[in-house]
Structure formats: structure tokens, C-alpha cells
Amino acid sequence: MEEYLFYVTISCLTIASPGPGVLLTLTNSLTYGLKNALPGILGVALGMGGISIIAASSVGAIISSSAWMMNIVKLLGAAYLIYLGLKLLRSKPKLQNTLNDITHSESLPSVTARFRQVFFVSMLNPKPIVFFMALFPQFIKADQPFAPQFTLLASTFCTLVFLIHFVYGYITTSARQKISLGRGFLIINRVGGIVFICFSAALILSINVNLIINSV
């Protein structure tokens, strides 16, 4: 039980730390409200579930041990983050008068689009693969069946992802009441777009570092 609680603590600290998924949850919650941000929050959780399965398989071992495979995943992730960043920078929220108008605006993406956007951000982030491959073995006992232990750890992590992002969304949605509408959301989109592009730049720089190291 103590080991499990330690795992939960590490997971909570990791999930709560700023990253592309957290930023998308904050942006969607500010723009559309908690209810409309839920598909994205579910996308983050299920994306982490998919990553955990990959990490537990031979595919995860291949990706984490191959610099070129890791670079490909990073490049795809960087490209998608640039796309999201430019999309936010180009967006021009209308100066609506009420939060209700914003929530029901025609610009609200479909449920599928909101889910898919955050799901892909999670799946194209290579860091969780390495994280899971480093973390899971510390809490899986060799003398016990692997599947039940993996299922418990992975499902716990996904549940924590959903709950923590839900809390982020709730707090952010509450803060919307204090934000000047229209121009406030425009500033939020601009800042979010810049941060996404910075995340992608960090990924690209890490790719270059790996290539230099491998060529030496």
C-alpha cells in the first residue's frame, strides 16, 4: 500500500506540472467553459492510457532505445504543436457580451475535434513513454502476474490525469468571470500560441542535440 501511495504521489506531481496537455485544458476551459472542455480532458486521459500501453510493449522499448525513432516522434509532436500554436495566434475571438454567448458560439469545435486535438498532443509527446518505462518497473513485482499490476498502475494514472485536469478546468472556468471578455480571450490565445511554439522549439532543439551526439 505504501508503494502504491508513493506511485500516486509521483503521478500527481508529474501530471500537475505544466505541459502541452495542461495548457490545452486551461485554454479550452477559459474559452469554452468546463463542460465544453471535458472532451479534451478525456482525450488527455485516454492519450496517456495509449502511451502507457505503448511503453509496456516492445514498441515502447524500440522507440526509447532508438535515437532516430525518438527523433521522429519528437518531430511529429513539434509539428503538431506548431500547428496548434499558429491556430491560436490566428484565431480572432468575437467581442461577445456574455459568457453564454462564448460557450455557444459558432466557433466552438465539435466534440470529436476537441477530443482529437488533445489526444494527439498526448500521443505525440515522447516524454511519457520514457517516463512510464522508467516508472512502471519500480512498482511491478516480478513474482506476481504482470497484467493486473500494469492495469492498476495505468488505470490509476489515467484517472489521476482526468481528475487533475478537471480541477484545472474548474478553477480556470471560475476565473473566466473575472476576465475581460473579447480582448482578454484574444490575449489568452496569443500567449497560448506562443507557449505552444516554444514547446515545439524545445522539442526541435532536443532533436538536434541527439543528432549531434549520435554523429560524434
Automatic annotation (TrEMBL):
Coiled coil: none annotated. It is found in: Cell membrane. Pfam families: LysE. It comes from the Bacteria. Keywords: Cell membrane, Membrane, Transmembrane, Transmembrane helix. Its main location: membrane. The chain crosses the membrane at residues 6-26, 38-62, 68-86, 118-140, 152-171, 191-213. The keyword Cell membrane applies. GO terms for molecular function: amino acid transmembrane transporter activity. InterPro entries: LeuE-type (IPR001123). It is a multi-pass membrane protein. This is LysE family translocator. It comes from Pseudomonas gingeri.
